[in-house]
Specification:
The structure holds 2 protein chains of 2 kinds. Chain A is an alpha+beta fold. Chain A has 5 helices and 3 strands, in the order αβββαααα. In chain A, helix 1 packs across helix 2 and helix 4 packs across helix 5. By secondary structure, chain B is of the alpha/beta class. Chain B is built from 13 helices and 13 strands. In chain B, helix 4 runs parallel beside helix 5. The mean pLDDT of chain B is 95. The chains are: A alpha+beta, B alpha/beta.
């Protein structure tokens, strides 16, 4: 199985590898996959008060296609709004990286990771939200 | 001496044909090109002579007689012929077969087909060290057992089975004993009589010979019979019809002759290289685990797991080295190595395994280069690994409820 140029490129020069402090209120953390499946992605998004994704970081345990999918995902979401990131589809990753059918699930996991990070961010902010005074 | 990249360390998949073997084969393409069955002219006689010499050479490697060698297209065919051929011929003796869970697919799938045809097969589980337990064989063989098939050495983890002890048990119970000796013959001393073997599969391309030619040893004293798979001209005493692959057979014979002559020295040297590789890696890289017994193992095999780093990513990182992995991601079916699973290796460790197969043409320089490369690449992949990060933070990975999809 020869690796696609783009997959190799993401492996050789991965973008945005690393971690944010998951306790930072601006950060949403998504952890998806399982070691038993051979695929685990941790994807973190730093989101401004205006709902724009300012920065993203990832770490992945998985094959070259999984690493490339998550690296690409962090590249793409920077500058997106939450809504735009929510609508990011795995098929876009498949097309960009020329993933063969047997590797499509890697792109699905990357899409799941983004959604999980956004869900985590929303949950953190929903917990802080109710500003309406309790009715007396 | 400059190292030629990529470095080949996948000798369990196949081996380079020794240049001396190639040289021996060449005249049999354009000069001595007769059909070995052509009885009426010298083209045929010369070809036949070469084939008979090769028969003796391959037999000698196993302590057998040339008369007991049947040429095939390779070990897959030899395994099919041995198991199906014996099961069919001797089916009135019994319809039970015993084999191990670690056998090559050519054995396992053949057994599965026989199951569909009404045979009963016991697939012996194997302990964690990867070595078949003789007592387990004794317990499994009944008076309905027609055949026991156990490999000499495993292609993935390199573990070596005690075939002599197993053979004694099989004979005690009166069943036939088939050994898939593909990975072991030419690398370990092996004798068909000491092993009490009735049928033995071997192939040329695992011992620096050409692909496309193998052999099946079929015992003559006492005589073992088989129902042939291929019908036709009745070649190979009716056991395998088809024009012989003369150049391939000549190559196989020469490869066997070289293997026998060079075995003691070569196995010592290759073992030295393997240990150099293993110790070098384990000194530089933490959290590694060797799969299968280190003691009962082929000299050139190192199957090692690197925790927190996935196998296919490692293969991609080691792009200057030809090796393979037990990770699911490397197989078209996305299933992790059935050998590692059968050993009870945890799934995540199966995903992190790499198989190195050292051989005749590997050098110390290559081993040292690979040690450095492995250490660097594992470090790099661990930087990318969320599992490694969690472990460094003191988190117990087993305590996490993973959200698998």
């Amino acid at each position: 199985m020869a690796y696609s140029e783009k997959v190799l490129e993401h492996y050789e020069n991965p973008r945005n590898v690393g971690s944010f402090d998951k306790n930072d209120p601006r950060v949403g953390t998504g952890l998806v996959g399982a070691p038993a499946c051979g695929d685990v992605m941790k994807l973190q998004l730093k989101i401004s008060d205006a709902g724009i994704i300012e920065d993203a970081k990832f770490k992945t345990f998985g094959c070259g296609s999984a690493i490339a999918s998550s690296s690409l995902a962090t590249e793409w979401v920077k500058g997106m709004t939450i809504e735009q990131a929510m609508s990011l589809k795995n098929t876009q990753i498949v097309d960009e990286l020329n993933l063969p059918p047997v590797k499509i699930h890697c792109s699905v996991l990357a899409e799941d990771a983004i959604k999980a990070a956004l869900a985590d961010y929303k949950a953190k902010h929903a917990a802080a939200e109710p500003r309406q005074p309790a009715s007396t | 001496m400059a190292i030629k990249l990529p470095i080949y360390m996948d000798n369990h998949a196949t081996t380079r044909v020794d240049p001396r073997v190639v040289e021996t084969m060449l005249p049999y393409f354009s000069e001595i090109y007769g059909n070995a069955s052509s009885r009426s002219h010298s083209y045929g006689w010369e070809a036949e002579k070469a084939v008979e010499l090769a028969r003796d050479q391959v037999a000698a490697l196993m302590g057998a007689s040339g008369k007991e060698i049947v040429w095939t297209s390779g070990a897959t065919e030899s395994n099919n012929l041995a198991i199906k051929g014996a099961a069919e011929f001797y089916k009135d003796r019994g319809r039970h077969i015993v084999t191990s869970a670690l056998e090559h697919k050519a054995v396992l799938d053949t057994c599965k087909r026989l199951e569909r045809e009404g045979f009963e097969v016991t697939y012996l589980p194997v302990p964690k060290d990867g070595v078949v337990d003789v007592e387990a064989v004794r317990a499994a063989v009944t008076d309905k057992t027609v055949l026991v098939s156990i490999m000499l050495a495993n292609n993935e983890i390199g573990t070596v089975n005690p075939v002599e002890a197993i053979g004694a048990v099989v004979k005690e119970k009166g069943a036939l004993f088939h050994i898939d000796a593909v990975q072991g013959v030419g690398k370990l001393p092996f004798d068909v009589n000491r092993a009490r073997a009735d049928l033995v599969s071997v192939t040329a391309h695992k011992m620096y010979g050409p692909k496309g030619v193998g052999a099946l040893y079929v015992r003559r004293k006492p005589r073992v019979r088989l129902t042939a798979l291929l019908d036709g001209g009745g070649h190979e005493r009716g056991m395998r019809s088809g024009t012989l692959n003369v150049p391939g057979i000549v190559g196989f014979g020469r490869a066997a002759e070289l293997a026998m002559a060079e075995l003691p020295e070569e196995s010592r040297r290759v073992l030295g290289l393997r240990e150099r590789l293993r110790k070098g890696i384990q000194a530089r890289v933490s959290d590694t685990f060797v799969n299968g017994s280190l003691e009962h193992r082929l000299p050139g095999n190192l199957n090692i797991s690197f925790a927190y780093v996935e196998g296919e990513a490692m293969l991609m990182a080691l792009k200057d080295v030809a090796v393979s992995s037990g990770s699911a991601c490397t197989s078209a079916s996305l299933e992790p190595s059935y050998v590692l699973r059968a050993l009870g290796v945890e799934e995540e460790m199966a995903h992190t395994s790499i198989r190195f197969g050292l051989g005749r043409f590997n050098t110390e320089e290559e081993v040292d280069y690979v040690i450095e490369l492995v250490a660097r690449k594992v470090d790099k992949l661990r930087e990318l690994s969320p599992l490694y990060e969690m472990v460094k933070e003191g988190i117990d990975l087993k305590s996490i409820a993973w959200a698998a999809h």
